[in-house]
Amino acid sequence: MKFLFDFFPIVAFFIAFYIPEDREQGIYLATYTIMVATFLQICLYWLLYKKFEKMHLITFVVVIIIGSLTIYFHDERFIKWKPTIINWCFAIALVVSHFVGDKTLFQRMINMAEDKLILPNHVWRNINMSWAIFFTFIGFVNLYVAFNFSTEFWVNFKAWGMTLLNLTFLMGMGVYMYKYIKEPEPDSKSQEE
């Protein structure tokens, strides 16, 4: 459910892009739409969980700034930078967490969402840096596609290509993590029975 909730603004952007017949107008309608969708996302998340998720807030701030510039200057190049800026912000946060604190950002995020996952420290650090490199890479890929292909191609890449790349990388990380997952120690009561 949370996965679908997180991708709601991207889906709304994609759908809005294809509403007008004129694709040039589609990018501006999609920009308005993603601004409203990210606002709704953080409001609904607050209503459901009585807290804000940092990723949603960062995305909202970036979307509002870049979306406003896109609309004000009537220049789609601004909105095309959004995925790169967000991915690079996450990459920077992951790298900083690698050197500051006792746990990496990735480890903190996983252990907030799931039952405590027990992995060796070097595995957490490898995964954290792998994600930082991946987010940096995907930011460059976005810029390449955004400025070397049509806007329509970029919108499709943003909606489907980036999602597929993220899911593929996530599955690869899952396979890597699975090799190192430690089973929780059975408690003494269950051993006595």
Structure write-up:
The protein is mostly helical. It has 2 domains: 1-80; 88-182. The chain has helices spanning 2-17, 23-49, 54-73, 77-80, 82-99, 105-113, 121-148, 151-178, 188-192. The radius of gyration is 19 Å and the shape is globular.
Features:
globular, mainly alpha, 193 residues, 80% helix
Shape: globular
Distance between the termini: 38 Å
Number of strands: 0
Which band does the percent of strand residues land in? under 5%
Task: Report the average pLDDT across residues.
Answer: 88
Amount of helix: over 70%
Q: Can you write the helix and strand succession as a string?
A: HHHHHHHHH
Number of domains: 2
Instruction: Provide the gyration radius in Å.
Output: 19 Å
Q: Spans of 5+ residues with little confidence (pLDDT < 50)?
A: 188-193
Most strands sheet: none
Q: Assign the structural class, choosing from mainly alpha, mainly beta, alpha/beta, alpha+beta, or little secondary structure.
A: mainly alpha
Q: What is the number of helical segments per DSSP (H or I, 4+ residues)?
A: 9
